[in-house]
């Protein structure tokens, strides 16, 4: 288990841009080659034998539940995790993680807080993940840490073998 893994920290600092794009953007008078531009997930689970890695995020947000108004579900957790679905990041995650099986994604998102019971956000998250329902876990108040571990062991662990 890696906390705040650095595997994805330097993903796009070396992306080559066209001359036209370089002319249209800010270019500081400094060497950018030493910059580390990328992302740092909350955790990663690595099989020490196969070296396969499952990247993970824990996302918490308030939501629209009993006694609250629909706009109490505002926030952008559901947008922040979506970056993992972008073609460039998904390709790199698969390459770095060693998880190339198309049945599963190379990341796991754990949701907590009211968002796990918000009628709009739960539908949105389920829609966004589509057939990849094993790649997220709704850690609702009635669910235990044991439930979380069972989800991992039953649905994701085999992809690290």
Helix-strand pattern: EHEEHHEHEH
CATH class: Alpha Beta
| Amount of beta strand | 5-15%
The biggest sheet, with number of strands, parallel, antiparallel or mixed sense and barrel status, is:
5 strands, mixed
At the third CATH level, what is the topology name?
Answer: ECO RI Endonuclease, Chain A
Structural features:
single chain; 161 residues; alpha/beta; ECO RI Endonuclease, Chain A
Could you explain how this protein is built, in words?
By secondary structure, the protein is an alpha/beta fold. It has a single domain (about 1-160), classed as ECO RI Endonuclease, Chain A. The chain is built from 5 helices and 5 strands; from the N terminus they run E-H-E-E-H-H-E-H-E-H. The longest helix has 12 residues, at about 145-155.
Write the layout of secondary structure elements.
Elements: E1 2-3, H1 19-24, E2 43-46, E3 53-60, H2 77-80, H3 87-97, E4 107-112, H4 119-129, E5 136-139, H5 145-156
Parallel strand pairs: 3-4, 4-5
Antiparallel strand pairs: 1-2, 2-3
In short:
The chain has helices at 19-24, 77-80, 87-97, 119-129, 145-156; strands at residues 2-3, 43-46, 53-60, 107-112, 136-139. It is of the alpha/beta class.
């Amino acid at each position: 288990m890696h906390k705040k893994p650095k595997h994805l920290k330097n993903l796009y600092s070396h992306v080559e841009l066209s001359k036209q794009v370089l002319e249209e953007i800010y270019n500081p008078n400094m060497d950018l080659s030493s910059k580390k531009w990328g992302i740092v997930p909350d955790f990663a689970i690595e099989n020490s034998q196969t070296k396969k890695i499952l990247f993970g995020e824990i996302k918490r947000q308030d939501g629209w539940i009993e006694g609250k108004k629909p706009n109490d579900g505002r926030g952008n957790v559901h947008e922040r995790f979506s970056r993992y679905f972008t073609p460039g990041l998904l390709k790199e995650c698969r390459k770095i993680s060693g998880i190339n099986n198309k049945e599963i994604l190379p990341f796991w998102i754990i949701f907590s807080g009211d968002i796990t019971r918000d009628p709009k956000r739960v539908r949105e998250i389920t829609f966004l993940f589509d057939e990849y329902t094993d790649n997220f876990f709704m850690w609702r108040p009635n669910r235990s840490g044991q439930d979380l571990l069972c989800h991992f062991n039953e649905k994701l662990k085999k992809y690290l073998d």
